[in-house]
Each structure stands twice: as C-alpha cells, then as structure tokens.
C-alpha cells in the first residue's frame, strides 16, 4: 500500500495488520469469497462512475438478500474417517444464514419476527431477474468505456522483426 492510503487510514482510525510471516496465503479463505460473490455477480470490470456505483449498491442489496435469506449453505462440523481410514470432512444439514442466526438464540422475539417477515416478503424469481438486469447494464456501461479506451489508445508502431516477419538479408555480391 502506498503511504498516502496508510496515512489517511491512520487518521480515520483504521489500522492494518499483516498476515503471519512466511504464510503468504493466510487470506485465502477471504479471497475465495471475492471469486464467489464479487466476481460472480459484478464480474472483472472496472466501475468508476456514479451510475455504476448506484447499480452496484442495488446489486449488493439483492445479492445479500439472496445469500442471507434464501440460499441454504452447509458448514463443516467435524472430521471422521471413511472405510479406508482416510480423513473426511463432516457437514451439517443445509440451512440459510437466517435460520442459523435464529437457532443461536441471540435475537429478541421482535427482531426474529421482523427478519422472518422480511424473508417472507422476498420473491426469489424477481430477485434473480433484477440481478440479471443490473448485470447486463453494468456490462453495457463497462463495454462502452472499454471501447472508448481502445479508440484513444495510440497504436504501437512495430518493426517487422517485432511483428514476427523476418526481413530478407541482402545478397552478397
């Protein structure tokens, strides 16, 4: 990170930590979520306009609703061995993050009722349709920028050797 970002973050009370020494993939679990959520839903484009920001904010709300209220997931709960003695991961039954939250008993009855009412108001088909519309609009906006960037990028003049065409040698007299 550059010094300007670190200085700004310290002024805002944001502190950075590094991974453990010689453990370059400590953050692998977090980075895998980028591939699953961010890249799956927002792709690899660069978004830098207010219109794209508004679309992304709408998109993340829909993705959040889909994953936290509608999509069941499994969680590892332990290890066992199979018939040949190899270690095997054991998973619990698929449940939504909302069901897991309710089961842990930290919510008041009012909060639980409010979350369940919100979940019941969600329509999975309309969420999927709106996600697809937002993705197509984001792709359209990003492709317009890519085309404009391509048009203003000056073409590089290459010599025949760099292109891969060999120049004929002059004949000896």
Polypeptide structure, described:
- The protein is mainly α and 173 residues long.
- It has a domain at 48-147.
- 57% of the residues lie in helices and 6% in strands.
- It is built from 7 helices and 2 strands; from the N terminus they run H-H-H-E-E-H-H-H-H.
- The chain has helices at 3-11, 28-42, 50-70, 97-104, 109-121, 124-152, 160-163, and strands spanning 76-81, 87-91.
- The chain has a two-stranded antiparallel ribbon with strand order 1-2.
- A hairpin with a 5-residue loop joins strand 1 and strand 2.
- Helix 3 packs antiparallel against helix 6 (124-152).
- The radius of gyration is 26 Å and the shape is extended.
- The chain starts with a helix and ends in a 10-residue tail after the last helix.
- Mean pLDDT is 82; it is low at 162-166.
Order of helices and strands: HHHEEHHHH
The tally of helices reads 7
Radius of gyration: 26 Å
In angstroms, what separates the terminal alpha carbons? 62 Å
Assembly classification: single chain
Label the structural class.
mainly alpha
- Report the biggest beta sheet as strand number plus sense, adding barrel if it closes: 2 strands, antiparallel
Shape: extended
Helix content: 55-70%
Adjacency order of strands in the biggest sheet: 1-2
């Amino acid at each position: 990170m550059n010094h300007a970002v670190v200085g700004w973050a310290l002024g805002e009370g944001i502190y950075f930590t590094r991974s453990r020494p010689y453990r370059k993939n400590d953050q692998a679990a977090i980075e895998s979520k980028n591939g699953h959520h961010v890249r799956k839903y927002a792709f690899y484009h660069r978004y830098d306009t207010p219109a794209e920001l508004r679309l992304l904010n709408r998109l993340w709300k829909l993705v959040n609703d889909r994953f936290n209220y509608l999509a069941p997931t499994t969680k590892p709960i332990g290890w066992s061995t199979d018939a040949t003695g190899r270690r095997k991961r054991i998973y619990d039954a698929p449940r939504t993050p909302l069901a897991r939250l309710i089961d842990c008993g930290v919510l008041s009855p009012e909060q639980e009722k409010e979350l369940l009412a919100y979940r019941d108001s969600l329509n999975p088909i309309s969420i999927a349709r709106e996600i697809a519309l937002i993705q197509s609009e984001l792709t359209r906006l990003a492709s317009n920028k890519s085309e404009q960037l391509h048009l203003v990028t000056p073409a590089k003049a290459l010599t025949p050797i760099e292109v891969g065409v060999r120049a004929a040698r002059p004949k000896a007299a």
